[in-house]
Amino acid sequence: MAPVQQGELDPVIHAAARLKITATLATIPPGDKISFPRLQELLDMTPGNLSTHLRKLEDAEYVEVEKTHQGRTPVTYISLSKAGRRAFEDYTDALKQLLGGTA
User: Fold this and answer.
1) DSSP alpha helices (H): ranges in 1-103?
2) Mean pLDDT over residues 24-47, rounded?
3) Taking the model in full, what pTM does it have?
4) Could you tell me if residue 103 is inside a domain?
């Protein structure tokens, strides 16, 4: 994927659902993660819709998906990668510029 130029809105993040996902994950401290069901609950998204958008973000290396087990139960954890956090910061800066604020 080509890098986004300064002042441009990242099309991977710009889709409404992916923006909500990224903004939510950005509130979690670096190194922490959230379970898939909790993220789904916070965003009020269907499992399929959330999975589809997470895959796009994962393909762009903006999120990290960790699949593990608690006992015999599969659990999926999601976190914002370092690149994803940077991309979200760049996105918000570009949005501020677009809206006439200072970045």
Assistant:
1) 11-14, 16-26, 36-43, 47-59, 82-98
2) 96
3) 0.87
4) no
